[in-house]
Amino acid sequence: MADRIVLMDSGRLRQVGTPMELYHHPRDLFVASFLGSPPINAIQGRVEAFGDTQSFISQGLEVSLPRHFRCPPGPATLGIRPEALHLPRGADDARVKIAGTITYIEKLGAEMLLEFLPSGGEGPTLIARLGGTHAMETGDSVQFSVDPSGVHLFDADGNSTRANA
Fold first, then answer.
1. CATH number of the domain residue 71 falls in
2. Which range (12-21, 26-35, 145-154) has the least confidence?
3. Residue 41 falls within a domain, yes or no?
4. Are strands 61-64 and 12-17 parallel, antiparallel or unpaired?
5. Could you report the per-residue pLDDT of 115-130, keeping only the tens digit for each?
6. Residue 164 covered by a domain
7. Residue 160: inside a domain
8. Quick check: 117 and 71 in contact, CB under 8 A?
9. Which residues contact 107 (CB under 8 A, 6 or more apart)?
10. What is the rounded CA–CA span in Å between residue 12 and residue 58?
11. In whole angstroms, what is the distance from residue 108 CA to residue 123 CA?
12. 32-51: b or e for each residue (b if 16 or more CB lie within 10 Å)?
């Protein structure tokens, strides 16, 4: 086990840091995709500016972006860690919502992995990691809240757009 990781790709240094730094603050899409099991959900789309705000838009999904993302309008990839997807905790849960239909469930005892197709049905399936006590079945409709700390945005070149990345 190591205190620091040097992550390389084809002889190119991608990022150096502690395992948790690389996981929570990946410098680019390669690093974000390399670490984590199951891997990060990577959604291709575009960033659009609306006055002082920005949104990520992809196949019927629209996500208002926090101010700490600095991405020029145009192609982008939204990364959502599977553990950042939660079932809403009540009517006052104001986080971003993603609705969809469950396509596969892997029950692992203490947790379960759900693959779901976001509403609109044109995008890739996404994976959510939940506690193992939820009673769900393939074909069920679900709505997830997204924890902003598990969301990453990458520009057209795959670089992180988080101001502190």
1. 2.40.50.140
2. 145-154
3. yes
4. unpaired
5. 999 887 667 889 999 9
6. no
7. no
8. no
9. 132
10. 31
11. 26
12. bbbbbeeebbbbebbbeeee
Is the Cβ–Cβ distance between 86 and 97 less than 8 Å?
no
In a domain, residue 163? The reply is no
Give the count of domains, the chain.
Answer: 1
Radius of gyration for the alpha carbons in the chain, expressed in angstroms and rounded: 16
DSSP single-letter state for residue 165: -
Residue with tokens 């969301």: 151
Both tokens of 48, joined, read: 């659009």
For the whole model, what pTM was predicted?
A: 0.88
Please tell me whether residue 129 adopts helix, strand or coil conformation.
strand
Query: What range defines the domain where residue 115 resides?
Result: 5-154
Most confident option among 64-68, 86-90, 97-101: 97-101
Q: How far apart are CA 83 and CA 25, in angstroms?
A: 15
Say whether pLDDT at 163 is over 90: no
Q: What is the amino acid identity at position 55?
A: S
